[in-house]
Amino acid sequence: MSLFKNQLCVGCGLCESVTNGKVKMTLDPDGFFRPKKTQEVPANEYRFIKQCCPAAIIHKDESLRTPHTDPFWGDYFQCYIGSSSSDAIEKEASSGGIISTILIFLLENKIIDYVIHIGPDPENPLLNTVKLSSNSKEVLANADSRYAPSTALTNILQIIENGKHYAFVGKPCDVSALRSYSKFNQAVANQIKYYFSFFCFGVPSLNQTKKLTVQLGIQEEQVQSIVYRKNGWPGSFNVAAKDGTCKSILYKDYMHFLFSDIHIRCKICPEGLGESADISSGDGWSEFDEKGYPSFKNARGRSIIFSKTHVGDKLLSKIINAGHISIEEQVEDLRSLDKIQPGQFGKKKYHKYRILAFKISGKKTPKIDSYIYKNIHVLGKVNLRTKLSQLIGTWKRINLK
Ligand SMILES: Cc1cc2nc3c(=O)[nH]c(=O)nc-3n(C[C@H](O)[C@H](O)[C@H](O)COP(=O)(O)OP(=O)(O)OC[C@H]3O[C@@H](n4cnc5c(N)ncnc54)[C@H](O)[C@@H]3O)c2cc1C
Questions:
Q1: Any bridge partners for residue 83, and if so which?
Q2: Which of 180, 209, 349, 379 is most enclosed, with most CB atoms within 10 A?
Q3: Interval 44-68: pLDDT, tens
Q4: Would you state the pLDDT for residue 80?
Q5: Which residues, in sequence order, are CB contacts of 266 under 8 Å at separation 6+?
Q6: Which letter, b or e, does each residue of 361-380 get, where b requires 16 or more Cβ atoms within 10 Å of its Cβ?
Q7: DSSP-based three-state secondary structure for 28
Q8: Does pTM top 0.85 for this prediction?
Q9: From atom 40 of ligand 1, which residue's Cα is the shortest distance away?
Q10: So what's the pLDDT on residue 1?
């Protein structure tokens, strides 16, 4: 089957860039971007795409493997809980402002020329687009967690300029696709100096964002701007209309709705903690309800931070030593963090039963590197009831939607 007809495509857009537009990412009615061929794709271009496309392969390069591997959290050098030392950055960012702090450090110290990342599309504020940021103001304008599809690699080869150095921020699948492609492309290999990612539970359909704005009383055509997580932690979804009306809803009151329709490939994604990034971070929830779930009470942003490669570890130490990131704890016992990310934990622990649901349904899954699932039995036994609910839940998602 052609990769371009694969329902597992999560819309990174690498194929559009590699084929220089012979394939175009197009928004489907279900609210996800998928490739549409506009011209024939030469065999050599198709071959490269096939070896990197997140719908076809989930691969961890051997050169990225580290001495420490945790069955849930994956490869890492160090793990910290902390946040940006700057209140101004933390306020604009999604969680503890870790990613933006690192990006600003790299730009201000002239270690890179540009950041390639995702931000709101000025032409259609409901959509995301690729941004090139060269200073702290631009970095902070694009801080946030944009819980909607983002085609982060759609023009990656077209924007890399000779002689310039870059950091790339993307979802874990974007990062692993670009890492894989760097093997075939000198500009990517030599000019993208750092890869950063965040924990990613999955990409919600754009239709969820649209429905949420309508529920808040603002019609799609009236939307002027959307932010998902600024102003506080975990912050709120804020939508502004062209007539000046502003509506907002707290994270705890909208996140279940947005994440109730995530991409099918995200249900079986084993690399949601940023497996191929140099540094990855996520929400470091600290308060929990009676069922043990994060209570999402408003506080100053707090992040879990992993240095996942040697390059990332050196950079993170430098930034911490320079005082830009304040560390609350260096984490030795990673099991103490598992309950902070219950959704991610389940995804890793129950992956076998979800994959089985795909097989029973006659659906392909990406070819997954078994290294990523090394020692997951350590995460505990799965009882029969849970096995069945994971299997049936995934089967229904594939077949009845
Ligand atoms: C779809 C999605 C799912 C997530 N799931 C989880 C989860 O399960 N657990 C968890 O702890 N955290 C999750 N997060 C991450 C979390 O919301 C924060 O982004 C993360 O903690 C980093 O915070 P920060 O303050 O360091 O980042 P910031 O300083 O705010 O920087 C965020 C960076 O991420 C980039 N970015 C934002 N949205 C996207 C996007 N859609 N695609 C590509 N790049 C983007 C921005 O351009 C920016 O550079 C998710 C984020 C997204 C977008």
A1: 326
A2: 209
A3: 999 999 999 999 999 888 899 998 8
A4: 98
A5: 10, 200, 201, 202, 203, 272
A6: eeeebbebbebbebebeebe
A7: coil
A8: yes
A9: 146
A10: 52
| Structure tokens belonging to residue 348 | 């890793």
Stated as kind and residue range, the H or E segment containing 104 is helix 98-108
With H, G, I as helix, E, B as strand and everything else as coil, classify residue 108. Answer: helix
**Helix (H) or strand (E) run with residue 117 in it:** strand 114-121
Distance 247 CA to ligand 1 centre (A): 22
- What is the Cα–Cα distance from 123 to 146, expressed in whole angstroms? 16
SS (H, E, C) 171-203: CHHHHHHHHHHCCCCHHHHHHEEEEEEECCCCC
Tokens of 318: 């430098």
What's the one-letter identity of residue 147? Answer: Y
Mean pLDDT for the chain?
95
- Amino acid identity, position 253: D
146 Cα–ligand 1 center, Å: 7
Question: Of 396, 399, 298, 282, whose CA–CA distance to 340 is shortest?
Answer: 282
* Residue keyed to tokens 């760097």: 182
